[in-house]
C-alpha cells in the first residue's frame, strides 16, 4: 500500500515540475511571447513618448464621504443670568422667532446701591423674558426648572430649524481643486432615497474626526492619490426638505469644481505640478527638448487645462521626465516588478 502512495505522489510531482519549468522559461523570455510582449509594452508606457497638445473639455468632480447632521441652530442665552421664574414652553416645542420661552428674575438697576430699609427704594429684582432667537424646535431645555439659578451668559437652550445639512471633509491637497464656492453638489444617501441636489452652505476649517474617513477599498478616479497632511476643510450643504434623512446617516457628495470647454489640455502625467503652475517638456520639430513653465486651470484627474504656455499642435513628453530632485527611478522599477511578480 505504501508503494502505491509513493508512486502516486511522484506522478503528481512530475507535472508540477514541468509547470514550474514552463513558468521559469516564461520569466526568462524563452517560452511565452504574450507575456514578453506585455512586459515590453509596459516598459514603453513607463518610458513615455510624445503627445500632441489638443483642445478638449475638462469636467472636474470631487467625490467625498459625508455625514448628515441637524442644523446647529441658535443659542438662547441668559445674558444677565438670574433665577428662572416661569417656563412658557418645554423642550421639543416648536416656536416662532420672537416668541417668549421663559422668564428670569434679575437684580433691578440701582437695587444694590439702595440703603437698607429705604422706603422709597424700588423692587430688589425685576423679571425679564427671554425670547426665541429663531424659528424652529427648542432643544436642550429638558433640565431647566423653575428656581434654577443661571450664570450670566449661560445658554439655556438651542432653537434649531427642522432642517439638516450634509457635511464632508475635503482633504487639504484637494482644496487646490476648489477654485470657487461650488454651485453644483449632489447628495446620495447610502441605502437611502435617490440622489438630490444639495445647496452649498459653507467651506471652512475642519477639526480631526469631524467627518468620516474615506473608505480605503473604494477608488475615486478623480483623486490625485494625495490626502494631504492635515484635516483639510469642512464643506457643508443644505439637505432638501423633501429628502427623508436622519441624524448621523452617511452618504456621498459629488461636487462639481468646474467645467471648461474647448480649452488647451494635456494629460496630467505630462505636467510636473497640478495646481496653478507646472512644467512640461516640449519637443521641438528637430527633436530637441525644452522645459517650459505653464499656467494650469481645471483638472479632472486625467486631463489638465493649460491656460498659458502651450499652443494646440505643439508636442510634449508624456509622462514628464523624472525630476532628479524628487523622483526616484527605482521606485517605478519596483512597482513593475511587484506587478508582474518578478523577484529582485
TrEMBL record:
Biased composition (Acidic residues): 330-344
Protein name as catalogued: Multidrug resistance protein MdtA-like C-terminal permuted SH3 domain-containing protein
Disordered: region residues: 322-344
Domain named Multidrug resistance protein MdtA-like C-terminal permuted SH3: residues: 262-316
Gene3D superfamilies to which the protein is assigned, alphabetical: 2.40.420.20, 2.40.50.100
One of the Pfam families matching this protein, by short name: RND-MFP_C
Amino acid at each position: 500500500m505504501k508503494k502505491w502512495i509513493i508512486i502516486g505522489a511522484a506522478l503528481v510531482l512530475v507535472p508540477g515540475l514541468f509547470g514550474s519549468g514552463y513558468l521559469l522559461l516564461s520569466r526568462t523570455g524563452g517560452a511565452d511571447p504574450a507575456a514578453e510582449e506585455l512586459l515590453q509594452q509596459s516598459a514603453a508606457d513607463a518610458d513615455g513618448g510624445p503627445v500632441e497638445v489638443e483642445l478638449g473639455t475638462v469636467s472636474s468632480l470631487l467625490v467625498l464621504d459625508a455625514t448628515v447632521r441637524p442644523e446647529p441652530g441658535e443659542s438662547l442665552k441668559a445674558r444677565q443670568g438670574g433665577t428662572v421664574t416661569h417656563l412658557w414652553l418645554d423642550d421639543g416645542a416648536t416656536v416662532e422667532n420672537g416668541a417668549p420661552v421663559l422668564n428670569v428674575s434679575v437684580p433691578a438697576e440701582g437695587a444694590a446701591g439702595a440703603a437698607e430699609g429705604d422706603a422709597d427704594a424700588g423692587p430688589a429684582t425685576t423679571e425679564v423674558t427671554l425670547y426665541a432667537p429663531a424659528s424652529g424646535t427648542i432643544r436642550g431645555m429638558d433640565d431647566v426648572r423653575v428656581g434654577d439659578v443661571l450664570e450670566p451668559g449661560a445658554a439655556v437652550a438651542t432653537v434649531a430649524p427642522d432642517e439638516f445639512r450634509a457635511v464632508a471633509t475635503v482633504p487639504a491637497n484637494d482644496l487646490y481643486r476648489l477654485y470657487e464656492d461650488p454651485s453644483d453638489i449632489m447628495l446620495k444617501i447610502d441605502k437611502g432615497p435617490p440622489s438630490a441636489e444639495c445647496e452649498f452652505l459653507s467651506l471652512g476649517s475642519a477639526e480631526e474626526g469631524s467627518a468620516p474617513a474615506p473608505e480605503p477599498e473604494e477608488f475615486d478616479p478623480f483623486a490625485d492619490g494625495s490626502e494631504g497632511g492635515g484635516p483639510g476643510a469642512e464643506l457643508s450643504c443644505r439637505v432638501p426638505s423633501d429628502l427623508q434623512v436622519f441624524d448621523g446617516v452617511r452618504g456621498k457628495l459629488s461636487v462639481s469644481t468646474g467645467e471648461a470647454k474647448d480649452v488647451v489640455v494635456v494629460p496630467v502625467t505630462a505636467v510636473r505640478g497640478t495646481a496653478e503652475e507646472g512644467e512640461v517638456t516640449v519637443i521641438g520639430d528637430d527633436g530637441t527638448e525644452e522645459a517650459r513653465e505653464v499656467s494650469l486651470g481645471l483638472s479632472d484627474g486625467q486631463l489638465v487645462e493649460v491656460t498659458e504656455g502651450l499652443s494646440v499642435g505643439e508636442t510634449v513628453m508624456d509622462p514628464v521626465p523624472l525630476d532628479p530632485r524628487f523622483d526616484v527611478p527605482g521606485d517605478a522599477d519596483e512597482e513593475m516588478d511587484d506587478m508582474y511578480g518578478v523577484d529582485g
